[in-house]
Amino acid sequence: MTDPIVDRLELTTVANFRDVGGWETADGRRVAPGMLFRSAALDKASETDRATLAGLGLRTIVDLRSVAETEAQPDPVLDGVAGIHLDVLADAESVSAPANLDKVLSDPVTVAAANEKLADGSGLAHMIDAYRELVNLPSALSSYRTFFTGLDGTPTLFHCTAGKDRTGWAAAAFLTLMGVDRDRVYQDYLLTNDLFLPAIAPVFDGFAAAGGDPDLLRPLLGVQESYLDTAFAEVRESFGGIEGYFADGLGIDAAGQEDLRRRYLVTS
To answer: What is the structure's pLDDT at 98?
Structure first.
């Protein structure tokens, strides 16, 4: 299992950023680098990081967050880049953690309530349920359909708030359809724990200072193999596999799936 062959781009104010390309597929091809990027929220991007993003030749930024999240922390406007908003969890009973997470989780009253609630393992159960919804919610199916049918072979960045769940499933589904093997799909997914958790260290510190147990936050703010296991199990149960998910769930038939492979796979 090896890292993808892509240039490492270091952004200082945008967390969980990486190229989805570079991974080898089962037939010896590679997912084209420099075409599809993923990240956490972009609203705090510095001028330097905005220039780096512009230098990628981006044509589209796809925002997978809720309306409340996008209004609280709107994406920056980059010259020549179209913005598309797709509310994946519009039909969910609850959505992602609030945008001002550092403030919420440093309030002692909130922390005490969260600590009590999470101590019984409900954080893990919440995440498991959320990953089923990423596969089967009508709003998720509609949003991912629009996302994948809109991939036209030009550089695109997609993101949510943390860049780990809504974004993580989009990346995992895409890489699986491309023919990247399970281990590499999970390797990309689990990179969030290296690229996002350190960026939100102040959240853990504030939670601890207010009397909370930071370890209880990790199921909510990081990723685990079991979350992605849940999503793929839901795909198998509801659609029979990844091709069925794209065909019957997203309305992208075999010809459309092959078009995506032609656009995004290159010879090693």
So the answer is: 47
